[in-house]
């Protein structure tokens, strides 16, 4: 990146775009990000897509020194691609990383809204379900699954966020280190939930900013029943562990008060 100062007030920003079979989408999304916020860099994290996405990303990188490609050996899931991308960003000394889907669901034109909020926060969640946010072209069952999932997450974990499963986000690099992101094993949606959960428990300053989510127009979704089941199981597990820990802490406090009684 040439602009030494990066994005005003927050420093050097890397937008990580994980790709698997996004040959039709990778060029438009990279071009839109470059147009929307010229000072950021982009890392395409490709899992050796059979449709040649990685090669197209290489062409983009060859003609633009703000664009980079991380080639991974094969499909290992969204979470693993992000964890590798975060490690890459750390090695290169970026201050802020952004998660963004390749399929156009996350509008690069709204990126500056997330980055502006990073000035006063550690983590910024792009949120569909706050005033000003919206979802376009999703069938009713997808919306119901997403809204229902978020209600369940709020109940199970006690986190206040309206949209803990969204994948359009910005993190300060220092926070990813503090929450030990390299040990996150979740994939799919639960990857996003686990990062929010760890950041929340760590006491990070977390903002939700409204975004406009638009269903992909080209290419195939990688969403599956397994991804949904993984989220349900993991969230339930974290919720139970958090409740057990709270109960043990209460019992310990009670034991101490009673044992100091004369
Ligand atoms: N590198 C890599 N990227 C992935 C993998 N799985 C999904 N992605 C990318 O992650 C982003 C989100 O995946 P989508 O298939 O759009 O999943 P989704 O947005 O949850 O589902 P839809 O709303 O149906 O599109 C896209 O950019 C995908 O190309 C993977 O295993 N490896
Ligand atoms: Mg998508």
Account of the 3D structure:
This protein has about 260 residues and is of the alpha/beta class. The protein is about 45% helix and about 15% strand. It has 8 helices and 9 strands. The protein has helices at about 25-35, 55-60, 80-90, 110-120, 140-155, 175-180, 190-200, 225-260, and strands spanning about 15-20, 40-45, 65-70, 95-100, 125, 135, 170, 205-210, 210-215. A 7-stranded mixed beta sheet has the order 3-2-1-4-7-5-8, with helices on both faces. The protein has a two-stranded parallel sheet with strand order 6-9. Helix 1 links the parallel strand 1 (about 15-20) and strand 2 (about 40-45). Helix 7 packs parallel to helix 8 (about 225-260). The longest helix is centred in the C-terminal third of the chain and has 35 residues, at about 225-260. The radius of gyration is 19 Å and the shape is globular. The N and C termini lie far apart (about 65 Å). The model has no long low-confidence stretch (mean pLDDT about 95). Guanosine-5'-triphosphate binds next to strand 1, strand 2 and helix 3.
In a few lines, what is going on in this structure?
By secondary structure, this protein is α/β, with parallel strands linked by helices. The protein is built from 8 helices and 9 strands.
Keywords:
binds magnesium ion; binds guanosine-5'-triphosphate; 8 helices; alpha/beta; two-stranded parallel ribbon; 262 residues; 9 strands
């Amino acid at each position: 990146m040439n602009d030494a100062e990066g994005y005003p007030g927050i420093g050097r920003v890397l937008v990580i775009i994980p790709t698997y079979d996004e040959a039709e989408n990778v060029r438009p999304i990279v071009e839109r990000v470059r147009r929307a916020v010229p000072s950021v860099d982009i890392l395409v994290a490709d899992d050796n897509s059979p449709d040649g996405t990685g090669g197209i990303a290489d062409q983009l990188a060859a003609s633009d020194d703000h664009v980079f490609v991380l080639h991974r050996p094969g499909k290992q899931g969204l979470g693993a691609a992000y964890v590798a991308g975060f490690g890459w960003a750390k090695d290169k000394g970026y201050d802020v990383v952004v998660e963004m889907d390749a399929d156009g669901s996350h509008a690069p034109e709204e990126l500056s809204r997330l980055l502006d909020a990073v000035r006063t926060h550690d983590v910024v969640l792009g949120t569909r379900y706050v005033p000003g946010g919206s979802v376009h072209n999703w069938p009713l069952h997808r919306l119901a699954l997403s809204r229902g999932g978020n209600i369940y997450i709020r109940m199970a974990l006690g986190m206040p966020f309206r949209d803990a499963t969204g994948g359009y986000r910005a993190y300060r690099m220092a926070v990813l280190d503090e929450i030990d992101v390299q040990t996150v094993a979740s994939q799919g949606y639960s990857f996003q939930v686990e990062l929010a959960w760890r950041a929340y428990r760590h006491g990070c300053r977390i903002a939700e900013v409204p975004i406009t989510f638009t269903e992909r127009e080209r290419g195939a979704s990688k969403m599956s029943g397994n991804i949904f089941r993984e989220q349900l199981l993991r969230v339930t597990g974290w919720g139970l562990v958090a409740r057990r820990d709270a109960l043990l802490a209460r019992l310990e406090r009670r034991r101490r008060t009673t044992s100091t009684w004369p």
